[in-house]
Write a structure and sequence with these properties.
Blueprint: H1 5-11, H2 17-33, E1 38-40, E2 44-46, H3 51-63, E3 73-75, H4 85-88, H5 92-107, E4 111-114, H6 118-121, H7 137-147, H8 156-165, E5 167-169, E6 183-188, H9 195-207, E7 212-215, H10 222-235, E8 255-260, H11 261-270, E9 279-287, H12 289-299, E10 302-304, E11 307-312, H13 314-319, H14 321-328, E12 333-336, E13 351-354, H15 357-366, E14 370-373, H16 376-383, E15 384-386
Helix pairs in contact: 2-8, 3-5, 7-10, 9-10, 9-11, 9-15, 10-15, 12-14
Length: 387
């Protein structure tokens, strides 16, 4: 991989030990994947934030770093709401470690905004054609597929290295030749909003690391595309998909598949809620203002009977205080900075009902509890009663 003189100096430690370590990671990645050079990135999203996932070893690694990031950077969700962690049932020992992690990243110049939807709080962090170094799977999918930016799914260390250097190796989805559809998927059903998570859950398992091109009967909304991509990235490893009629088609002879009402119904039936559900959690990925508005409407005149969490980005909640107030009037809890998937607070429950294909795929493995699926309306009804 060709390095500029400045990059060579960083590799040799002439710009400090932290940049040397960062360059070591980026050069190793470039060599593994055959990158010809490093390219500048517009922004970075860093994973490896929850103490549940990185532990003492991860905290020690980031604590040794010095300097400031070279480009705007934000964090992935932490393991708790940084303000209301006691309400989540998080113990003080975990909270102390989690706060230390966020403070450590902040000292490096990374914004302490902890969200899987960085585009919701910083719309200028990604534009069509921009190169990025984002790490959360649903954010990567949204950036590549909906925004039209270019990013691989970075690991925590490689994203942090890219943030410090301001560059990433040029390989994978940064290259035009790797952004070609590999499978055509015809969706032969009129979809409701809650169907997109199921669709992604099914498609991800079938496509795995491929690049699907969907043919829909109707144009999806932005939040529906968010749910679709998030589910595919969780049940498979899909980081890019196409959905517009004028999108490039898969080459002749590529795989073709159909998904119909029967396929969606089967997944719903296999993951139907029952009396074992003792928590309902929404907002994976983080809820948008439109989704908060819908939840406030659904919760009007209802009171919570089962624990009900709604996760969103803190800046989104701060922009919609009246929506948050309306939601919490029911007894539901709007948590920021975190997600049910990465918080240890989820682990004490038996079965979680979600409206997210991503959470449906992740909760059993990462939280070690059962998961059930329903629409937002079904989730609200399962958690509440008429006042």
């Amino acid at each position: 991989m060709h390095l500029s003189r400045e990059e060579e100096q960083a590799c040799q430690g002439e710009r400090g030990e932290s940049l040397r370590r960062a360059m070591e990671i980026l050069v190793a990645l470039g060599d593994i994947y055959g990158a010809d050079r490093l390219i500048p990135v517009r922004s970075v999203q860093v994973a490896g934030v929850s103490f549940k996932t990185i532990g003492e070893a991860g905290l020690e690694w980031i604590s040794d770093l010095r300097g400031k990031v070279a480009v705007p950077s934000v964090l992935n969700p932490a393991g708790m709401d940084l303000s209301r962690w006691r309400e989540m049932g998080v113990d003080e020992e975990f909270a102390d470690k989690q706060i230390e992690i966020v403070d450590t990243y902040s000292r490096l110049g990374i914004s302490p905004d902890c969200t899987c939807t960085p585009y919701s709080i910083r719309p200028d962090s990604a534009r069509r054609g921009d190169h990025l170094a984002w790490s959360e799977s649903s954010a990567v999918s949204f950036a590549n597929s909906v925004i039209g930016a270019r990013t691989n799914r970075e690991g925590g260390p490689s994203a942090l290295a890219a943030a410090l250097v301001g560059k990433t190796p040029r390989y994978g989805y940064h290259l035009e030749e790797n952004r070609v559809p590999t499978v055509e998927i015809s969706v032969e059903v009129d979809l409701e909003t809650s169907d997109y998570g199921l669709l992604g859950y099914i498609a991800g398992r079938e496509v795995d690391e491929g690049v699907p091109r969907f043919s829909f009967r109707q144009r999806p909304k932005e939040d529906e595309l968010k749910a679709l991509g998030a589910a595919m990235a969780a049940s498979g490893s899909v980081a890019l998909y196409y959905f517009e009629e004028d999108a490039p088609k898969a080459p002749r002879g590529a795989e073709e598949m159909t998904i119909n009402e029967k396929d969606l119904r089967q997944v719903r039936e296999e993951n139907a809620p029952d009396d074992e559900v003792d928590i309902v959690a929404l907002g994976c990925p983080h809820s948008s203002p439109a989704e908060l508005e819908e939840l406030a409407r659904l919760l009007a005149g209802r009171k919570v009977e089962r624990e009900l969490w709604i996760c969103t980005a803190r800046k989104v909640a701060e922009k919609c205080p009246k929506l948050v107030e309306r939601i919490e009037r029911s007894g539901a809890k709007v948590f920021c900075d975190t997600c049910m998937v990465v918080s240890p607070a989820s682990d004490r429950y038996r079965k979680m009902m979600v409206n997210s294909g991503k959470a449906l795929a992740y909760v059993p493995g990462l939280c070690k509890i059962k998961a059930a699926y329903g629409s937002a309306e079904e989730c609200v009804k399962a958690a509440t009663r008429r006042d």
